[in-house]
Design goal:
The chain is built from 9 helices and no strands. With 259 residues, it is mainly α.
């Protein structure tokens, strides 16, 4: 692991420790996470069904049921700290925006098995990011809200299984190994670039509008840290926590594309 990645992990852990200790910020995060499970990636499951049968179709049904269960778990966690589910601001609905950036693949009618592969490989990238984020949230919450930390631990475990579902469904739709790997790499790269810009908006919204316990100097520090990160121009690839960097199903990714 590089020095820069170690620094990124340290900063993420510090920031999330502040987030989980601010009730308003934690409620906002939980609400967005629940929305992503129910109205983000979950939108694609019905659209891929006409192209699938047998065991692969059953995997998709199980995947869909898991996401419904995850959303309910997160809503329950939100309620436990006094929150009420609501629709997040449109510009902060990260999974839906990612789907739009990939040609609206989560919401449009799919036309081919290659469309199915693309949708499920974008889900593959989403699941890797979820493993990263939920690992860090589990760590941050452990000493503050252990019950909510356990929610993230349980969902993260499922997301690791979902990565293998994504491999199975996408390879069934696109069996050529070279084409599959190229499309996977494209979706992983797209997710990293979109996460970089979308996470900036999410963080700035929290700092400017949501945090109630963070001091002005702390907010200034995080804004400066974010600007320094943006100055590098590099996409935010998933961090090496909780197995998030694993790429099941094919050979490892090549070196990242230049920013």
């Amino acid at each position: 692991m590089s020095m820069m990645e170690n620094l990124a992990i340290t900063l993420n852990r510090r920031y999330l420790r502040s987030l989980v200790r601010d009730p308003a910020a934690l409620r906002f995060f939980l609400n967005n996470a629940a929305d992503a499970e129910s109205n983000g990636e979950a939108t694609v499951f019905e659209r891929v069904k006409p192209f699938l049968d047998g065991q692969i179709a059953k995997l998709v049904e199980r995947h869909a049921a898991d996401e419904v269960r995850h959303a309910a778990m997160l809503v329950s966690a939100l309620s436990s700290i006094g929150g009420t589910p609501s629709t997040p601001p449109e510009n902060l609905r990260m999974v839906l925006r990612l789907g739009e950036a990939a040609g609206n693949v989560f919401e449009k009618e799919l036309q081919s098995r290659e469309d199915v592969a693309k949708a499920y490989l974008l889900l593959y990238a989403v699941e890797r990011r979820a493993i990263e984020r939920f690992t860090l949230m589990e760590e941050a919450l452990a000493d503050v809200y252990p019950d909510i930390a356990e929610v993230f631990a349980r969902i993260k475990k499922d997301e690791k299984t979902h990565l293998h579902y994504c491999v199975a469904v996408s390879k069934d739709a696109l069996p050529d190994e070279a084409a599959w790997t190229a499309l996977r790499d494209e979706m992983v790269e797209l997710e990293a670039r979109e996460f970089t810009s979308q996470s900036r908006e999410f963080m700035m919204h929290l700092l400017d509008n949501v945090f109630t316990t963070m001091t002005r100097s702390e907010k200034a520090f995080w804004k400066m840290a974010r600007r320094l990160n943006d100055f590098t121009g590099r996409p935010q690839y998933v961090l090496d926590v909780g197995g998030a960097k694993d790429l099941p199903g094919s050979r490892p990714l090549p070196a990242p594309l230049p920013a």
